[in-house]
Specification:
With 342 residues, the chain is an alpha+beta fold. The protein folds into two domains: 2-117 and 238-340, no CATH class; 121-207, PDZ domain (Pdz3 Domain). 51% of the residues lie in helices and 22% in strands. It has nine helices and twelve strands. The strands form five sheets. The chain has a four-stranded antiparallel beta sheet, with helices on one face. It has a two-stranded antiparallel ribbon with strand order 1-2. A two-stranded antiparallel sheet has the order 3-12. It starts with a helix and ends with a helix. 27% of the residues are buried.
């Protein structure tokens, strides 16, 4: 139940922000919005305010704005359709959804930092967490232990400790001298190997500060920018090696939302912020059927001086739909394999 509720909360928050971006800019540019909907399928709640119907639907996996004139062949007579507006106005409406998904994480990270504190990894060689069932736990190491040396080499920072482990040969034993309270002890263990890394199952300690309002805003913006850059770099790597893609679909997202929720509300909010950034980046890819693909067709229209023909639009949309279906199939397959541990 926690997984389902958490997934609905996260997806609902992200979709609402995204569609709100389209909705507000459509209204500001004079377009007629016939319906603003969260979810798909049958209507659960529906209210009309002015010319717009606001609805919540049964399947909470998306949403939409029914903007008049999105289809040029169905051009409204009042001149307030999407296709009636200038190219810059239409571009603004298209990018506004993803823009909101970039802005939302700033607010979410701000809330986490301001109310929950700003936690950063400590540079000290102190164990913040020892994971059960891995070499450190099996050797009796505990959270709070401070590493003094590794195989006789003095350790003064976490980076030195991490680099020292990675420098070991595969299956090479590591002798740690550590301090626990006033007692100094020594233990020998063999790290496990994952790629080029050697791990013993520990995480660094964290240092938490409680910044003020304006400092929290700056930290939230910085965290949003940092994660965006990391995601863009990961996307570039993914495009270079698509066969190694490990994408998740709705099942995987729901599972991760449940795991985040079990760690606390702050963790769930942080997960929502990361997922929002991911949605913003993916949605602006120049793929037909995504906002990025729609933006590209507007650029082509600006260069040509006239829109693409209905036939060309139809074929590009079909390509986009096929690509999205293929992605969903791969993502669902990955989810099933992950859930069933195949």
């Amino acid at each position: 139940m926690l997984t389902i509720v958490s997934a609905i909360f996260v997806l609902g928050l992200l979709v609402t922000a995204h569609e709100l971006g389209h909705f507000v800019t459509a209204k500001l540019t004079g377009m007629r919005v016939d319906e603003f909907a969260i979810g798909f399928g049958p209507k659960l709640i529906s209210r009309k305010r002015g010319e717009t119907v606001y609805s919540i639907r049964a399947v909470p996996l998306g949403g939409f704005n029914d903007i008049a004139g999105m289809d040029p062949s169905n051009k409204p007579e009042d001149g307030r359709g999407f296709c009636d507006k200038s190219i810059p106005a239409r571009m603004l409406v298209i990018v506004a959804g993803s823009a909101m998904n970039f802005i939302l994480p700033v607010f979410l990270f701000f809330g986490v930092i301001f109310f929950n504190g700003n936690s950063e990894p400590s540079t000290e060689p102190v164990f913040g967490q020892v994971i059960e069932g891995l070499p450190a736990s099996e050797a009796g190491l505990m959270a709070g232990d401070r590493v003094l040396s590794l195989n006789g080499r003095e350790i003064s920072t976490w980076a030195e400790f991490s680099k020292g482990l990675d420098a070991l040969a595969d299956d090479q034993a590591a002798t740690l001298k550590y301090e626990r309270g006033d007692q100094i002890s020594e233990v020998t263990l063999t790290p496990i190997t994952e790629g080029s890394r050697h791990l013993i199952g520990v995480r660094s300690d964290t240092k938490t500060t409680y910044p003020g309002f304006f400092e929290s805003i700056g930290l939230a913006v910085g965290r949003t920018v940092d994660f965006t850059m990391m995601m863009l770099a990961a996307l570039v790597d993914l495009l270079g090696a698509p066969s190694q893609a490990d994408v998740s679909g709705p099942i995987g997202i729901a599972q991760m939302a449940g795991q985040a929720a079990s760690a606390g509300f702050a963790a769930l909010i942080s997960f929502a912020a990361l997922l929002s950034l991911n949605l913003a980046i993916i949605n602006m890819l120049p793929v037909p059927a995504l906002d990025g693909g729609h933006f590209v067709t507007l650029l082509i229209e600006a260069v040509r001086g006239k829109p693409l023909t209905p036939k060309a639009l139809m074929y590009t949309q079909r390509v986009g739909v096929v690509l999205m279906l293929l992605l969903m199939i791969v993502a669902t397959k990955n989810d099933i394999v992950r859930v069933l541990n195949l």
